[in-house]
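INFO  loader      accepted 1 record
INFO  loader      residues=165
INFO  predictor   begin
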Amino acid sequence: MTLPAVATILDRDLRALVREVEAYPNERDLWATRPGITNVGGTLVLHLAGNLQHYIGARLGDTGYVRDRAAEFARRDVPRSELLREIEAAQSAVRTVFGRSVLPDPDADFPEVIAGKNVRTGEYLVHLTTHFSYHLGQLDYHRRQVTGNDTTVDAMQPAELSTRR
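INFO  predictor   done
INFO  writer      dumping tokens
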């Protein structure tokens, strides 16, 4: 596992997140509920952006970001423009931390105790990457169900990996 690979995948997936948000033809649809779906599109966006700003930006990059996780799930009807700004802030946090000349030590303990335990930074970064992908897939299905449009936004494209030759 290399940290640059984590950075590449998070950057790719954040760009896909922007495309997902923009693919909702009506921004009200980001907040549309459906039976059996607890997290609507807008909630997923707030959660994903807040998660990266907290764990990568604040914890690894000392950005000063203060997370309000409860608000990520409680807020409603946040305008698309604000959701896109939150994604931009997450992109900035990822680029700042992984653009430094000295990267976090993947074998060191992550600088926050996770679920009452110490976890290695590298392992937690892989967790953050898979967590992001999981919710990105949920957002894609929410958009398709709410809008009735099954058009892909080309998320998760191997062509966007940095080592592709």
